[in-house]
Amino acid sequence: MTDPTSPDPVRAAAERLLAARASGVPCAPVRDLITTADEAYAVQDRLTEHALAGGRRLTGRKIGLTSAAVQAQLGVDSPDFGMLFADMAVPDGAEIPPGAVLQPRAEAEIALVLDADLTHERHTVADLLRATAFALPAIEVVGSRIADWDITLVDTVADNASSGLYVLGTRPVPLRDLDLRLCGMVLERRGEQLSTGTGAACLGNPLNAALWLADTLVRVGRPLRAGDTVLTGALGPVVAAAPGDVFEARVEGLGDVRAAFAKEES
Amino acid sequence: MSIDVEALAATLDGAARDVRAIPKLTEAEPFDVATAYAVQRAVIERRERRGERLAGVKMGFTSRAKMAQMGVDDVIWGLLTDAMVAGPSVEVSGLIHPRVEPEIAYLIGREVRSVADVESAVAGVAVGFEVLDSRFADFSFTLPDVVADNASAARFGVGAWHPPRDLANAGMVLEIDGRVAQTGSSAAILGDPARSLRAAARLALGAGITLEPGWVVLAGAATAAVPLPKDAHVRVTCAGLGAVEVTT
């Protein structure tokens, strides 16, 4: 039970995260304020309401914690999700300004773009396939408002699933032409291989992650809609990003996409 | 310094035959990589004297992670014999502490006379697995140790051969008892397993060994190896190449 005399912990957590984002100075974890996943999503929801009230356009969702290794690291057995807004989308290869994302890291993913709403209580893979217009290769630039990425499940969920920016490839591919489980992935910087993987690393298949998301979002009352982009989760290990880094991800069958970080201001 | 190559080979060969882990050879007396390959060759010669026939080569340390871990900047290689070919099952009791990893395999179709020649000499590609079984306790070894120990080679298997094709970024999954144990891309093998194939030709030619028709080149692992349990069903799947299975 929350002590009625103390300030609302959900509000306090949201304010701490908003202050970190506004100042560009990472904050302490929020797990001293909140303890459950429900409270963490309540914090995230507060941030979402704040964003929507500020005129930001919701463009989709990201799914996080989709790999066995990351789930083991955080001691969880379920993925999580965060919101994507239009101002988080970066064109392929466009410069990402310094400080745009706090403590940035890059990971290669498969993005699904929907052309139908997913509003059932439970979706089947058939529903998902029918609702997916096409897939794109993507680089998600994750970030953490929490200092040194010192996160537990509640910290990352509250912090919009540690989302930052996202870059989509530009050649849409229909799912009928893809084996999402076995599409190899390479993430490189200056031709140097940093990370490799395949679709199976994402909950066995990126479609499994998207199904989980579709059902979960109906439950929380903010279902996926036609036009939404779903970042399904990392296909291989995440890598730290430094100023000047240009990452290229190649996903077999989907093509390539680049995330370019501007050099440090001199 | 006098290293008794034959004695070291006998020690390694005995460890494999007795299914018994031994301490690192370099603990008693250090030796260099060139000597290590001489020991490796002597181990293979002992096997050949027992009637085993060469069946191909295997590449090791083909991933950036493994090279960094071992502090090396080139691949290593070992020789495969027909006795290492896994049938439908592998008896783990005949191995010390086996690990399994997903591989890309090349089938040599004609004698390889130069590095430039090797890709056109390939008759087929397949998904494969390799069972590693370092003869050293706890898989703990230096570079010369693991080279002398034939790059930990123990058993291998390949799926159906397919016509040669681009395998630069093929998704691979290793399952044990139907559950995903490792996932990765063939890109982890030197950025493209074809590079490992060329390295195999370079190293073999340099050592005076000709890649023969019918030989298999195991190009390297797409993921880290995992322990191979008893009474298990192992399947490796690769995009476009189907799957290979083995039980223990």
UniProtKB/TrEMBL annotation, chain B:
The keyword Secreted does not apply. SUPFAM superfamilies: FAH. Keywords: Lyase. InterPro entries: Fumarylacetoacetase-like_C, Fumarylacetoacetase_C_sf, Hydratase-Decarb/MhpD_sf. GO terms for molecular function: 2-oxopent-4-enoate hydratase activity. The keyword Lyase applies. GO terms for cellular component: cytoplasm. Residues 97-246 form the Fumarylacetoacetase-like C-terminal domain. PANTHER family: 2-KETO-4-PENTENOATE HYDRATASE, ACID HYDRATASE. This is 4-oxalocrotonate decarboxylase.
